Each structure stands twice: as structure tokens, then as C-alpha cells.
């Protein structure tokens, strides 16, 4: 059965973490809002979401037969077991879910750098507060999050992935987090990367995987922009 992924059609956002898992798995899926005709577009997305018996709070959500699954980490928990992107044992699945939830915290903080006062306000309406928030994020929070993942990799069984020998969806999501931070905070990441060599090695190994490499080179991969979670505002990342 073909999965239906529902997310905003013009940004990577949180939907990209799901796309990477689907692409790595070689799963058949439709990125619904990016389609043509009545199935595409933001208005159709909002209408479909509101019509669900268990309506998601926000995109992304995944339709798998009769299942409608919201929240990125929840979707990946489902896909991980289905497609061998998570351990079969309960303890392992919970650990990978914990890793993913920590990435979700990092993603939320990265977003809130440019929207520290209110989600409904434009960045231009909160630039002084964003500058202050960005300073803490660059100098403290990025290294705390990525340093923790470096420790996880250092303590993991041999194999180079977050859980050891086997790739999981958390490794794919760590790749996306690093890519997003490189885009939004290139100077801060250049300073930090020499201290997180294991994290960068995971990023490089994910990029080299055949399905991911093909996806990144395809039009299915939406470019980063100042409309998504990770936004490049040079004044928030000084040299």
C-alpha cells in the first residue's frame, strides 16, 4: 500500500524527517500537497486534516490504510518498526524514540531563534529578541544538544550509528538536523564541528547511502529557505 504524507508543499520543515525515512526504506509514498489537481495545495491539506476523526494538531501526518498518524516522532516510531529502521526489541525502540524526541527539542529551539516572541509575528517584528535568542542558541544550546549526541555515539556499541551497527531513523534525523544547522548557522557550525566528529561522521554516512544520495539529487528534495524551520539570517550568525 502506498503511504500518503501530508505536509506543506513548499518547505522541508518537520515533514523532511519523515521523507528521509520513507526514501531510505524505498517505500512507496505520495507527498499529497505537492501533487496536481484537487489533491494538492495548502487549502486541500487543511481541509483534509480538519476532516479526520482524530485530527492532527498540525502537519505532518501520515495515512497508512485506516491509520492516520500525526507528530513526526510518532510517525517515525510507526515506520521504524515497519521498515527495519528501529530495533525490534522494546527497549531499543524506546531508546530510538528518545533520540528522536531529543532531536525534536533541538528543532523546536532552532525554530524559536527566529520566532522567540510569537509564532504569529513576522521575524521583522521580533528582530532584537531574535538576536538575543540566537546568541544563546549559537554559544550554548547547539553544543549542548550536539555534544550529547556525540556522547551517545561514543558510548554506543561499535558500528558508527547511534545504536551501534544498524542505521535507524534517528540517524537520518540527525543528518537532517546537522544539515539544517549548517544552513542556518554556518559560522557557528564551523566552529563547533571539530568537537563533534562522530556526529559529522553519521551525517556523512547517511548522505552516502544510495537511496538518500538519489533523493538529495532529485527534485523531491525541497531546498532550504527562509520559510522553514532552519532559516539563514546572517545577522543571527555573525562571523
**Biggest sheet features:** 4 strands, mixed
Secondary structure: number of strands: 4
Strand order of the largest sheet: 2-1-3-4
SSE-based structural type:
alpha+beta
Kindly estimate the percentage of residues that lie in beta strands according to DSSP: 5-15%
Rg, please?
18 Å
Question: Percent range for helical residues?
Answer: 40-55%
- What general outline do the C-alpha atoms trace? globular
CATH class annotation of the largest domain: Mainly Alpha
**Segments where pLDDT lies below 50 for 5+ residues?**
none
In short:
The chain is α+β, with helices and mostly antiparallel strands.
Task: Give structural notes.
The protein is α+β, with helices and mostly antiparallel strands and 239 residues long. The chain has helices at residues 15-25, 42-51, 72-82, 90-114, 127-155, 169-184, 186-192, 197-208, 210-216, and strands spanning 3-6, 29-31, 61-64, 67-70. It folds into 2 domains: 3-82, 3-Layer(aba) Sandwich (Glutaredoxin), CATH 3.40.30.10; 90-208, Glutathione S-transferase Yfyf (Class Pi), Chain A, domain 2 (Up-down Bundle). It has 9 helices and 4 strands. A 4-stranded mixed sheet has the order 2-1-3-4, covered by helices on one side. The chain is globular, with a radius of gyration of 18 Å.
Amino acid at each position: 500500500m502506498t503511504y500518503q504524507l501530508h505536509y506543506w508543499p513548499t518547505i522541508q520543515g518537520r515533514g523532511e524527517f519523515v521523507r528521509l525515512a520513507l526514501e531510505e526504506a524505498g517505500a512507496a509514498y505520495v507527498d499529497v500537497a505537492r501533487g496536481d489537481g484537487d489533491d494538492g495545495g495548502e487549502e486541500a491539506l487543511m481541509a483534509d486534516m480538519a476532516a479526520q476523526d482524530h485530527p492532527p494538531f498540525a502537519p505532518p501526518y501520515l495515512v497508512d490504510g485506516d491509520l492516520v498518524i500525526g507528530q513526526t516522532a510518532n510517525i517515525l516510531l510507526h515506520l521504524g518498526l515497519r521498515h527495519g529502521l528501529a530495533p525490534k526489541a522494546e527497549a531499543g525502540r524506546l531508546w530510538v524514540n528518545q533520540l528522536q524526541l531529543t532531536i525534536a527539542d533541538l528543532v523546536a529551539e532552532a525554530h524559536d531563534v527566529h520566532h522567540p516572541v510569537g509564532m504569529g509575528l513576522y521575524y521583522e517584528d521580533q528582530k532584537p529578541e531574535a538576536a538575543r535568542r540566537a546568541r544563546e542558541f549559537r554559544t550554548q544550546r547547539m553544543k549542548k544538544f550536539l555534544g550529547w549526541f556525540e556522547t551517545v555515539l561514543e558510548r554506543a556499541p561499535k558500528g558508527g550509528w547511534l545504536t551501534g551497527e544498524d542505521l535507524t531513523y534517528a540517524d537520518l534525523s540527525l543528518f537532517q538536523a546537522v544539515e539544517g544547522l549548517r544552513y542556518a548557522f554556518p559560522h557557528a557550525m564551523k566552529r563547533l564541528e571539530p568537537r563533534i566528529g562522530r556526529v559529522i561522521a553519521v551525517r556523512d554516512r547517511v548522505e552516502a547511502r544510495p537511496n538518500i544520495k538519489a533523493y538529495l539529487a532529485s527534485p523531491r528534495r525541497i531546498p532550504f529557505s527562509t520559510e522553514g524551520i532552519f532559516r539563514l539570517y546572517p545577522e543571527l550568525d555573525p562571523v
